[in-house]
């Protein structure tokens, strides 16, 4: 399987968001990665429902929505209505993770769980068969453009072992500091999907940069 490339629209030009959505539509990218932050779970605030709905209106590819928010359960239905196809919640933000996953699936979305850099992948062992995706954060969540944390490579490899052991079909996605060098290392460690924000949107030719990631 060719790796999934999910450009992070957090790094796009908000004054030209439709232009950047069309660029992703016309590129070899597979998903749109949409980071949602509430200023509580992480020290930053990003998109609300109107922006997600606007992206969905123009997007021709699935919306891969990553919730960096406290109490995600109360908004699951609203994110479905806004256009999320994949909905990922943080392990650290969910008291009743199994129930949260069930609600995401009941609303017709694929269910993912994200892990902060300090959280062991072992915490997901029991629930892996229920998941469609695990998102490994290779930076501390909250801001784009951070430096890649190398320990993420070991975490991806260990998670791959657990997925195989439990018979899970969950994809491994990685977000943070992804470029051609780290992307290649992550794929070799077992990652299935790469999120890239500033590396794509700050490049001279974002379409070509996406193609380069796809070709790794």
TrEMBL record:
PROSITE patterns: RIBUL_P_3_EPIMER_1, RIBUL_P_3_EPIMER_2
CDD domains (UniProt xref): RPE (cd00429)
Cofactor: binding comment: Binds 1 divalent metal cation per subunit.
Binding, substrate: 8, 66, 142-145, 175-177, 197-198
GO cellular component terms listed in the entry, alphabetical order: cytoplasm
Enzymatic reactions: D-ribulose 5-phosphate = D-xylulose 5-phosphate
EC code: 5.1.3.1
One BP annotation, GO: pentose-phosphate shunt
Keywords associated with the record: Carbohydrate metabolism, Cobalt, Isomerase, Manganese, Metal-binding, Zinc
Cofactor needs: Zn(2+); Mn(2+); Co(2+); a divalent metal cation
Biological or metabolic pathway of the protein: Carbohydrate degradation
Regions annotated as coiled coil: none
GO MF, one annotated term: D-ribulose-phosphate 3-epimerase activity
Binding site for a divalent metal cation: 33, 35, 66, 175
Superkingdom of the source species: Bacteria
Gene3D superfamilies (UniProt xref): Aldolase class I (3.20.20.70)
Stated family: Belongs to the ribulose-phosphate 3-epimerase family.
Name under which the protein is recorded: Ribulose-phosphate 3-epimerase
Classification lineage: Bacteria, Pseudomonadati, Bacteroidota, Flavobacteriia, Flavobacteriales
